[in-house]
Amino acid sequence: MVQAIVINEPGGPEVLKPTPVEVSAPGKGQVRLRQTVIGVNFHDCYVRSGLYKTLELPGIPGLEAVGVVEEAGPGVTGFKPGDRVGYMTRTYGGYAQARVIDADLLVRLPDALDDRTVGATLLRGLTAHMLVRQVFPVRAGHVILVHAAAGGVGRLVCQWAKHLGATVIGTVGSEEKAKIAAASGCDHTILYRTENFVDRVRAITGGRGVDVAYDSVGQDTFLGSLQSLALRGHLVNFGQSSGPIAPFSISLLFDKSSTISRPAVFHYFTGEGRDTMARELFSALEDGIITADHHHDYAFADAAQAHRDLEARKTNGAVLLIA
Fold first, then answer.
1. CATH class of 124-266
2. Which of 268, 271, 320 is nearest to 294 (CA)?
3. In whole angstroms, how far apart are CA 238 and each of 18, 216, 245, 307, 308?
4. Closest CA to 119 of 267, 273, 295
């Protein structure tokens, strides 16, 4: 028996309680994984509260974790006991001290990166890779706009894009966050609470606009992001922290031949692309192209407190459960 955080009904952080569960032997194509570091994300809070009804209850939340293979099931050839691995999954189950998981979801961790560094970066870093290397491949000479530039994904996007030679414009909510964004590669920072970011983008670019806008904010910034695009510019919406985007007329795209995408990292982190993305992410970390976030570590039994602090904005960086 091991401990897992089982949600029996939606609610506040108090519904997150350690519960003894039994972990079976791995079946064909599976491994038993002893987990060491578990990532806590806002998505988990939405699942816990019932806003997202994507986890069948009772169920174990959690999208990502790092651990050590304890046992490999029949047919598994790529992993063996003792291997350090990480994973990201849409089917949850991450909040557990141990679990059985399909081996084809795993990526091997390099010796140069410790478990907590990977745990603080995996989902965010893979999302950043998807954004700047695949959805809109950034190259030298591009001018890009990054909303929430000091946030978990935004900071990595700024670092990676700057390394690729882009001019980076970032929006932030405070002077403190402007310093973080600037240290992460932003050439220009915009305090969106006191400045009109559309006007500032026009001024910075001499009226041209940006080649791509990376927007995880959603409702509050969507139309402004469209207005900030250059001719044939692209808007990547990958979140909705301010609320969902209302239906809009597709004719809004005609004026500049703009394009929009709404990517999900799980659709990119699959098949042969999984190993490529992980390898390039880990190399970027090892080479200092991107840097791991500061992380807040919580004991596994303190998952409820981790959620409270995350929702109260008391954390600045990654939130991890140490199993």
1. alpha beta
2. 320
3. 32, 5, 11, 22, 24
4. 295
Whether residue 294 is predicted with pLDDT greater than 90 in this model: the reply is no
Model pLDDT, residue 271:
87
pLDDT in tens, 128-147: 999 999 999 999 999 999 99
List helix spans (H) across the chain. 42-49, 115-119, 122-129, 152-163, 175-183, 197-204, 222-227, 272-286, 303-311
Question: Which CATH entry fits the domain spanning 2-120+292-322: 3.30.2130.10, 3.90.180.10, 3.30.300.20, 2.30.40.10?
Answer: 3.90.180.10
Pairing of strands 259-261, 229-237: parallel
Per-residue exposure over 146-177, b if at least 16 CB sit within 10 Å of its own CB, e if not:
bbbbbbbbbbbbbbbbbbbebbbbbbbeeeeb
Strand, helix or coil for residue 203: helix
